[in-house]
Amino acid sequence: MTSIVALLLTAIPTLAADPSAGRGLAFKWCAECHVVANNKVSTDGTPSFAAMAKDYADRPEALKVFLAQPHEPMPPLELSIRQIDDLAAFILAPSLPAK
Ligand code: HEC
Questions:
Q1: How close is the Cα of 14 to the center of ligand 1, in Å?
Q2: Range of the domain at 27
Q3: For the whole model, what pTM was predicted?
Q4: Ligand 1 atom 13: residue of nearest CA
Q5: Does some domain include residue 16?
Q6: CATH no. for residue 66?
Q7: I want to staple 35 with a disulfide (CB 3.0 to 4.6 A). Which of 31, 40, 46, 68 is the partner?
Q8: Would you say the CB of residue 36 lies under 6 angstroms from ligand 1?
Q9: Does ligand 1 come within 6 angstroms of the Cβ of 34?
Q10: 47 lines ligand 1 (CB under 6 A)
């Protein structure tokens, strides 16, 4: 499953990802659990977006593969490839715009 997703993500020519669309998705769908703005630190161990940016800085494809699958306790969002690209572009942006 993971390898099929990886194949899809790399095989489909990516439209220019839109970090500002990703930012909108992040505040709508991820901020409930994750600290999205880069000036804040998570208190409960859930990785902040800043921590994700660091972890995945040199492997954006791994981040996209991760986002293609639901993670507990995240509800299965079934993100489209476009949304995944936008989210990844936002997460990996060098400096995240504050809310
Ligand atoms: C209901 C809560 C919840 C929501 C909503 C949620 N997450 Fe998570 N997420 C978590 C938790 C908890 C972890 C830590 C899981 C673990 O370490 O096993 C996590 C981990 C992650 C990780 C880190 C994976 C790694 O390598 O450690 C990424 C990336 C991530 N989430 C992205 C997102 C994105 C993007 C969204 C919005 C589309 C989102 N999450 C929505 C709870 C949530």
A1: 23
A2: 2-91
A3: 0.82
A4: 46
A5: yes
A6: 1.10.760
A7: 40
A8: no
A9: yes
A10: yes
